[in-house]
Amino acid sequence: MQHVKIPQDRIGVLIGEGGETMREIESRAEVRLDIDSEDGTVKVESVGDPVTALKGPDIVKAIGRGFAPDDALALLEDDMMMFELIDIEAASRNKNDFRRQKGRLIGEGGRTRELMQELSGAAVVIYGSTLGIIGGPEQVDAVREAAEMILDGAPHGSVYSFLERKHNEMKHKGLEYHQFTG
């Protein structure tokens, strides 16, 4: 059994309308969820295939970090699907720097986050002090590298060029490239 803590405002999303989302996670990930809506603690207990159940806590964490339930459930579609978090606050010197860094990652009108998502094929969400990524290994690597470039102060133009290059590499390698339709 694993315990996952999620923000109060994401509990409703995890449960879903009439418990629909919770039931879908339980059946598809072969786990049982015990949600404490008072403090945001979720107990994730394996009830079926232990390998499938390993993805259960990641699905709950992903929803807690701002992903839509459908995006989080994509972790079950393929053994290679990964969920990764980047702590923006850890890369910041102070509150003002944190706000600036987060703003740079989001971009004007959300354009930078959108481009990271479109060009990598991964799902990308910025929520609170984290940037979350769900995708295959190559997709997650591309977004992580792009985010690190932005956090290190690289101009957006060079980050976009990097993402374009990665996008083309993934297409040419014949990787199953699925444009994320979020």
TrEMBL record:
Protein's UniProt name: Ribosomal RNA assembly protein
PROSITE patterns, per database record: KH_TYPE_1 (PS50084)
Residues in K Homology domain copies: 1-81, 82-152
Lineage: Archaea, Methanobacteriati, Methanobacteriota, Stenosarchaea group, Halobacteria
Gene3D superfamilies reported for this sequence: K Homology domain, type 1
NCBIfam families membership: arCOG04150, PRK13763.1-4
Record flagged with keyword RNA-binding: yes
GO molecular function: RNA binding
Pfam families the record matches: KH_1, KH_PNO1_2nd
Coiled-coil residue windows: none
Keywords: RNA-binding
